[in-house]
UniProtKB/TrEMBL annotation:
Keywords: Coiled coil. This is Transposase. It holds the Pfam family HTH_Tnp_1. Residues 53-80 form a coiled coil. InterPro entries: Homeodomain-like_sf, Transposase_8.
Length: 87
């Protein structure tokens, strides 16, 4: 089965159409994207929060991954510091 790749601009356009009142079923039929995919894009790209503090679900996932990476890096540095302090 061939999987189509859609760029971010296309995804944002579909989500904007949804927010302007176009139904998921209409978007799916018109642009050849499954309804499940459209719902996933809406979930990922719809801002959470209000005003300047709003972020998308996708950005939140990326931030959590980065935070985990930094926490692991910090633990490694703490262990290295303890080893060098013994010498």
């Amino acid at each position: 089965m061939n999987r189509k790749k859609f760029n971010d601009d296309f995804k944002k356009m579909i989500v904007d159409f949804y927010h302007s009142g176009t139904s998921v079923k209409d978007l799916s039929g018109e642009y050849g994207v499954s309804e499940v995919t459209v719902y996933r894009w809406i979930k990922q790209l719809t801002p959470v929060g209000s005003g300047d503090e709003s972020i998308t679900q996708k950005e939140m996932v990326e931030m959590k991954k980065e935070m985990l990476r930094l926490q692991q890096e910090n633990e490694i540095l703490k262990k290295a510091m303890a080893i060098f302090a013994k010498k």
